[in-house]
Amino acid sequence: MSRITTHVLDTSSGKPGKKIRIELFRNDSEIWKLIAEGITNDDGRLSDLPENSDTEKTGVYKLKFHTGEYFVSEGKDSFYPFAEVVFKVNGDFHYHVPLLISPFAYSTYRGS
């Protein structure tokens, strides 16, 4: 399992957000550097982001969820083409960052 994981729940349908493209960035001197990417599984989870030296560093990270693509695939109109969640990594912990989505809203929290 990766040090940084996520899952997506489509609250408008009550189902997992399947096949959502997600990119992981690290802020390096005010520049966002893409360090990993993946696609959620049928349970809406992404727990196998590639590990590399960048995910081991303390700093500011960003998960970019391509929610607009997902809603198009579901035949739904949506307001947000993507959702970005910025968070701090500052210890040797597991960071789980869930996302709750609907076509016109999203929210997140620090998971376990």
Give a short summary of the structure.
The chain is mainly beta. Strand 9 (99-102) and strand 10 (105-108) form a beta hairpin. Helix content is 6%, strand content 46%.
Are there runs of 5+ residues with pLDDT below 50, and where?
Answer: none
Distance between the termini: 13 Å
CATH architecture: Sandwich
pLDDT averaged over residues: 93
Shape: globular
Looking at how many chains there are and whether they match, the oligomeric state comes to single chain
Question: Describe it for me?
Answer:
- The protein has 112 residues and is mainly beta.
- Helices cover 6% and strands 46% of the residues.
- It has one helix at residues 67-73; strands at 4-10, 15-16, 21-28, 31-39, 45-46, 59-65, 83-89, 95-96, 99-102, 105-108.
- It is globular and about 40 Å long.
